Amino acid sequence: MGLVSSIHSINSLFFFLPSHTHRNQTSSLVFVERKITPVPAPATPPAPPTPRFAYLISGSKGDLEKLWRTLHALYHPLNHYVVHLDLESPLEERLELASRIEKQHIFKEVGNVYVIPKSNMVTYRGPTMVANTLHACAILLKRTKDWDWFINLSASDYPLVTQDDLLYAFTNLDRNLNFIEHTSRLGWKL
C-alpha cells in the first residue's frame, strides 16, 4: 500500500504529464482528426525505361570461337548485335559464323543478331577500323533505332559484368549524354 501511495505522490509532482486516470475519461470524446481523411501517398515516379545497347563484335582470322564465346557472354534479348569477321578470316569461318547464328534458336526468335555478310578489310591501325565501326552503326540504325549506347568490341574481349548488371547501371544515366550531344553543349566546332 505504501508503494501505491508513493507512486501517486510522484505522479502528482509531474502534473504536466498525462496520468492513467485521465486517459479513460477522454474515450467518449470525438476528435476532429477522425473526420479528416488521410492524405494519399504521393505517386511514385515511373521507373526509367531499361537502356538498350548495340554491339559491334569483330574478329579476324582464327577468331571464330572467341567471337562466338563473346557473343554468348554478352547476349541479352533487349540488346542488338552486329558481328563481323574481316577479310583476313577464311571464307569457311565467315560461313560457319553465319550458319551458327542462323541455327541458334534464341537469335532467330528475337532477331537481334546480324552478321555482316560482306567482310570488310580492317587493318586495326587506320581508317578502315573507323569505317568498319561506322558501317556497323549504319546497319544498326537501318534495322532499328531502339538502342541507347553503342559498344565496339573485338572477339578477344570478354565482359566483366553481366548484361543485367550493365543494364541496371545505365538505367538512371541520361541517354542524351553521348559524344555528339556532350561536345555540342560545350560549343566545340568540328
From TrEMBL:
Keywords: Glycoprotein, Glycosyltransferase, Membrane, Transferase
Record flagged with keyword Amino-acid biosynthesis: no
TM helices/strands, residue ranges: none
Mode of membrane association: Single-pass type II membrane protein
GO molecular function (one): glucuronosyltransferase activity
Domain of life: Eukaryota
Protein name: Xylosyltransferase 2-like
Species per Swiss-Prot/TrEMBL record: Trifolium medium
GO cellular component assignments: membrane
Localization in the cell: Membrane
Signal peptide range: none
